[in-house]
């Protein structure tokens, strides 16, 4: 029986391709890889990812708890700012805590003295061209950059986290940015035991020069005598998941329109925020449609795509790359039916791991 749409479909065979590349990088470079939960937190596949990765990193109490309870292994805690009421619980779930600022470190250093402590550095250069997602943007609150100030805090920390790549598939650019980090922070790095280079490096993408990447990481690790960490979010799950939808109506208003039983605002919000179109394969043929969501937002549009045949009510449309920053951002806008979550096993069988009901919608508010 075919599953009722809408649903997210995580394909383990496709996920495995990323996992195998991550395992190769760990093996060859000596770096450890932590899943960034803010990108992907669908814990039903954590048991599968577990053997290929070293643990998780987080950006809140909820995430660090999920990482600890559902993934296990190494659990890094980071947050832009911790509140007094949550710090004890955060420390209880983590084996390493990375403070965003020296003032947060000073405030909570004692409470976190039982686990490894670190600080986020901001190198003031990044690969991001989108202001909204640029950690090195002017006046950024993300990390410390003043070496003299950081030096004074060295007695309370043993390592650093630097996250300044963003969807960076260009190894040359990664290499140059890391070089700038070394120039700026080399003296600090030599005094550290570990350095996390954050996420945003698209090393699981096709044609990425994986071995050059590994050698660069290994060289960095040897030079400063540090354990290197990577925090892949998108790179861990890229191209593993689709959003499966069904056409509910077709119209012609100067363009051919097709309305599906989903919503980009509710179910693929990140695309709307960054003004990108959804991805659809094969996207070839003589029939062009603007595929729209069923919320009442005028701009609830997945994109314009080319189809082999005319679309009819009941046709299925599958959007690619529906894992990263997608399932974690789904919401109940318009009360649109929440996509179920299904997993395609390596043997091809599909099982539904979560369905959402009216009760979930009702309980999301009060
Ligand atoms: C967002 C983020 C990540 C993951 O980034 P991806 O682009 O999904 O790989 C890792 N570390 C930190 C500190 C982040 O803010």
From TrEMBL:
Q: Which domain of life is it from?
A: Bacteria
UniProt keywords, alphabetically: Cytoplasm, Decarboxylase, Lyase, Polyamine biosynthesis, Pyridoxal phosphate, Spermidine biosynthesis
Reactions that this protein is recorded to catalyse: carboxyspermidine + H(+) = spermidine + CO2; carboxynorspermidine + H(+) = norspermidine + CO2
Which cofactor does the UniProt annotation name? pyridoxal 5'-phosphate
Q: Where's the Orn/DAP/Arg decarboxylase 2 C-terminal domain?
A: 239-322
> Which compartment or compartments is the protein found in?
Cytoplasm
- The EC code for this enzyme is 4.1.1.96
Pfam families per UniProt:
Orn_DAP_Arg_deC (PF00278)
What CDD domains does the annotation carry? PLPDE_III_CANSDC
The first-level EC class reads: lyase
Note the subunit structure.
Homodimer.
Q: Which family does it belong to?
A: Belongs to the Orn/Lys/Arg decarboxylase class-II family. NspC subfamily.
Function description? Catalyzes the decarboxylation of carboxynorspermidine and carboxyspermidine.
State the name under which the record lists this protein. Carboxynorspermidine/carboxyspermidine decarboxylase
């Amino acid at each position: 029986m075919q599953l009722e749409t809408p649903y997210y479909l995580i394909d383990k065979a496709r996920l495995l391709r990323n996992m195998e590349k991550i395992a190769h990088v760990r093996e060859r470079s000596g770096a450890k890889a932590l899943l960034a939960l803010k990108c992907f937190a669908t814990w039903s596949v954590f048991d599968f990812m577990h053997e290929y990765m070293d643990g998780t990193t987080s950006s809140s109490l909820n995430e660090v708890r999920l990482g600890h309870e559902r993934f296990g292994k190494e659990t890094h805690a980071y947050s832009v700012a911790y509140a007094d009421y949550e710090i004890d619980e955060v420390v209880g779930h983590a084996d390493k805590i990375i403070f965003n600022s020296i003032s947060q470190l000073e405030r909570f250093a004692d409470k976190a003295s039982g686990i490894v402590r670190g600080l986020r550095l901001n190198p003031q250069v990044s690969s991001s061209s989108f202001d909204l997602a640029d950690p090195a943007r002017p006046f950024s609150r993300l990390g410390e950059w003043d070496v003299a100030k950081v030096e004074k805090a060295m007695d309370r920390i043993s390592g650093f986290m630097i996250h300044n790549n963003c969807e960076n598939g260009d190894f040359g650019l990664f290499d140059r940015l890391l070089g700038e980090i070394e120039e700026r922070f080399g003296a600090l790095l030599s005094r550290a035991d570990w350095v996390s280079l954050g996420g945003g490096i698209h090393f699981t993408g096709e044609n990425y020069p994986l071995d050059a990447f590994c050698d660069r990481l290994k060289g960095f690790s040897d030079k400063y005598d540090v354990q290197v960490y990577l925090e892949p979010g998108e790179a861990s799950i890229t191209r593993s998941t689709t959003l499966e939808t069904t056409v509910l109506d077709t119209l012609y208003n100067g363009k051919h329109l097709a309305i599906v039983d989903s919503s980009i605002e509710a179910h693929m919000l990140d695309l709307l925020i960054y003004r990108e179109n959804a991805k659809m394969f094969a996207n070839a043929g003589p029939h062009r449609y603007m595929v729209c969501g069923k919320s009442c937002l005028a701009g609830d549009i997945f994109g314009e795509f080319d189809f082999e045949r005319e679309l009819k009510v009941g046709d299925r449309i599958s959007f690619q790359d529906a894992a990263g920053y997608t399932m974690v951002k789904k919401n109940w806008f318009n009360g649109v039916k929440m996509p179920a979550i299904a997993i395609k096993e390596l043997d091809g069988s599909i099982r539904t791991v979560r369905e959402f009901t009216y009760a979930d919608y009702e309980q999301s508010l009060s």
